[in-house]
Every structure is written in C-alpha cells, then in structure tokens.
Amino acid sequence: MTVRDILKMGDPRLLRVAEPVKEFDTPELHALIADMFDTMHAANGAGLAAPQIGVNQRVVIYGFKQNPRYPEAPAVPETVLINPVLRPLSADREEGWEGCLSVPGMRGVVPRLARLHYEGFDQYGNKISRDADGFHARVVQHECDHLDGILYPMRIEDFSKFGFTEVLFPELDPNDDD
Fold first, then answer.
1. Residue 93's domain spans which residues?
2. CATH of the domain at 61
C-alpha cells in the first residue's frame, strides 16, 4: 500500500481525542490498516496510532518479533486494535524508556501500568480481549495514549531521564531517528 508521513510533536492533530470507528470490514478501514503497517515497518516502529498519520480514528497497530529500536524487548504479538478499552490488573507501575515516531530522536523514562487487560476489535469487527504485562503492556498504553491526544513526554515525571537517543544510547543505530 502506502508509507504515510508521520506527524511530529507540535502538530495540533496529535492532541485531538480520536473518534470511534463505527464500521468494520470496509475497504477504507483495510486500506488504512495496510498503510499503517507499511508506515510502521518502514520506520522500524513498535506500534503506530492512526492519529500519527493524521487520521482521527481510534485505531492502533503494534507488534514485532524483533525491533532494532528496542533490541532488548521481547516479541509483542502483531495486533490491530480498534476502539480499545484498557483496565488495570493491579496498581503496580513500572518505569521504562520510550521513544515515539512522532518525537523522533528522543527517549524518556515513562511510568506505566505493569499489568493490564485490554479489549477492542480487529478490522473485521471480531472482539479482542487480552491481558498484557511488561513491554507488551507498555506498547499498548503508549499507542492508546495517542488516541486521547497524549504524547509520551507528557507522562515523564523526571526530565533528567529525557534526551536525545544518540546521547543516551550511543550503541543504537545512529541512522535511527526513532
């Protein structure tokens, strides 16, 4: 399909609350999801939300077997998640480094729920219901934040743990712009 331009932090479209998807299994929805996967893979992303490519709908995708941007991260199942609802499974939070395709070249430590349950639908309207922890839970929360107009720097509590990837992690690919 098509690799789309990814909006960057500062674009007001990233701050909107996305609209729920009302129709599933449509040619338009399938084309959007194909473009999102093409865009995510081209950028070596762990996930992508529709608002990041200027589409104001509650659609996120994520997943990888191995990701050069997060070499230590375990695999996350490739998923299309539409109209998601997240529910904590405990109050425990974990801090972890995050980057974002809309905040290129930077990383920050963000506290996230350690375990959660999420529900939603795939592009065909089939229900998805999963528990997640660790990096999987972090990716889901990060992508779903985009649906509510939240970028990860808005969640950083300690700005001494926020900076340029090339300075913080010089061992990562210098051509990787997050």
1. 12-168
2. 3.90.45.10
